[in-house]
Amino acid sequence: MDVTGHTSSGNHRGPGQEPRKAASIRDVAEAAGVSYQTVSRVLNGHPNVREVTRNRVEAAIETLGFRRNATAFALASGVTRSVTVLTSNTTLYGYAATLQGLEEAASAAGYSLGVKVLTPEDDLDRTISSAAAGGGGLMVIGFDRLGASALRRVPADVPCAAVVEAPPHGRRPPRPAVWADDREAARAATAYLLQLGHQTVHYVAIPTSVGTRRSEGPRAQGWRKALEEAGITPPEPHGGKGWDAQAGYDEGEQLARDPGVTAILCGNDELALGVLRALHHAGRSVPGDVSVIGFDDAPHAGFVTPALSTVRMDFQGLGRDAFALLRGQLESDYQPPARTFAGTDLVIRESSGVTDV
Amino acid sequence: MDVTGHTSSGNHRGPGQEPRKAASIRDVAEAAGVSYQTVSRVLNGHPNVREVTRNRVEAAIETLGFRRNATAFALASGVTRSVTVLTSNTTLYGYAATLQGLEEAASAAGYSLGVKVLTPEDDLDRTISSAAAGGGGLMVIGFDRLGASALRRVPADVPCAAVVEAPPHGRRPPRPAVWADDREAARAATAYLLQLGHQTVHYVAIPTSVGTRRSEGPRAQGWRKALEEAGITPPEPHGGKGWDAQAGYDEGEQLARDPGVTAILCGNDELALGVLRALHHAGRSVPGDVSVIGFDDAPHAGFVTPALSTVRMDFQGLGRDAFALLRGQLESDYQPPARTFAGTDLVIRESSGVTDV
DNA sequence: GGAGCTTGTGTGACCGGTCACATCCATGCC
DNA sequence: GGCATGGATGTGACCGGTCACACAAGCTCC
Lengths: 357, 357
Hints:
The structure is a homodimer.
Chain A: E1 6-8, H1 25-32, H2 36-43, H3 51-64, H4 70-77, E2 82-87, H5 93-108, E3 112-117, H6 124-132, E4 137-142, H7 145-153, E5 160-164, E6 177-179, H8 182-195, E7 202-205, H9 218-229, E8 238-239, H10 245-257, E9 263-266, H11 269-281, E10 291-293, E11 310-312, H12 315-330, E12 345-347
Parallel strand pairs in A: 2-3, 2-4, 4-5, 5-6, 7-8, 7-9, 9-10
Antiparallel strand pairs in A: 11-12
The first copy, chain A, binds a DNA duplex through residues 24-26, 34-38, 40-41, 43-44, 47-50, 53, 68-69, 71-78.
């Protein structure tokens, strides 16, 4: 079945009507019989305008359908109130949720939000430069290599804040940034699985922002640390090439073949879903034969069967905090809250349990 | 477990360095020993500039770290090349995918993209007005009531295009718009279920952009039509209050209690996931006892168990086409492609099957 | 050798707002 | 009555670019 859709592309402009230019404050001024400066005063709510004058101007604004030109305003006043988000992805849950937090915060502060999706093909420097030319600040979602390298390339004179993967101990990101402690979260999740009685825990990695080895991301580090603390030699991590369920399925097929695999930590819930599916196909029950824990707590995680145990992340909080950090650079009198955001949270559902072995 | 995160908010400005203003073309001109106009010519690749002069200017641009002020450019040239998307949601699959298509198209055409999330609380007219003040066009995602009413309120002189629910037969949306024929898609999906041997098909609705009755959306209409064509009186539709899995679960619990329910069409995949979960809890097997079909083909639909049969929608194509429609209004010499986009596609996986009855 | 064209470059006005300052007028006060 | 005060309004410059046009120098051509 392939049903074609429709498009309605009517030119919704009357036949005789000219696409006449938008009214400026001077047009309004003329219509109201005042100077353009008075119109400006009315627009900005300046107190020293007589009641009658104000009314006359407001009437003129109404009849002419005047809207203040934001471009001219920005140029003349030097106030931009806009930020652009640089991200390599907008649909994956972690990114989308961060973006949402960013948007909420920006909107609440009266900022407009631009979004620029980074692709490996385009010239990063050019992209950044044109995004920065807008005048406002830059926000970078640096969960992956593309985002991280974009962050590194932002010129020093451009206001910028980022949300990133937890940086290696003692190392600071190139710009003001916020992050969640997913290293510790991964450690705790792994420790929990060991405590359940599993001999070891396998890891299916997400791509990471740092290095090329898939074992280097903070989640992988936390997993490794938990194993080492328990005196277990970490097995070779899987994955690291993709974020989606298909990637998880591919890795899951391999893992399912190994009877020694009884516990799997996944870098995100999509991967976990794929792993779950592969285990199901291989006839291995979850959590009976294998425990699986995801990461991020995507909206559907609790509704698949078996319901996915996972680590909840406060992506929206991350977005909000990162925006506050940027705002602190943009407005000299704004003090970004120093609070650390709400952290991570291990949520146990059905996909993890005591091993049968 | 509650691990707090960190924020690194260092002021990455050296102690002695002034936050000195960005260089303008006149600064560059002075540094290169030419007039500002010559700098402008170099920036715009004007041919009539001597090789040596060009090099000198480019060197000055490099040393001063000059970036052309996009605001001033927009004001002076009258070219904006930016569009703002008005949407009530950014994370739900259909919205996110549409947004992605929009962004791709905008980016490819050299436009920057703004996003403004609509909430029931904020003043629509004010929001629209401030979004339109940017100068560029407006794109509205009108899948729901909020989006649809925003679309209706966009002033006639503001360039605008939308992606909407399929409008009622013969009716046109208030602005140039694109849509998928989900009415027909729902009809086909329902007909397929009937053909499998089900006596009737129940419907769990998504909220819709039109009217208040949950039966009025195009998907509901298609479902109803298929039943009527088969001489079956449509049962009362369920849902219509939410988009997410929890809403689906709530409706699924009710449906699970009714042994007469053997086939369920859901307004989206999230709802279907919730329904699946509720059926599972009630001990009714899918597709053995009940067939379930979703809508949208979200990324995880194929990886849940049982894999979800669903209707694939080309949201990205919708986004691209809507952008082309807007671009046609913004650039007088740009002719939007008249092609109808790729349509919907019923994808059968595991959650639908022949009834046991 | 000057008219006429092309090439390279500079000047002034303008886009649509804001800001600093000047002006006009009505008060209040001594 | 003279003067400081302050409210209401207007004027000119400016933000950082672009555009239209002027103009000088070099070249061709008759």
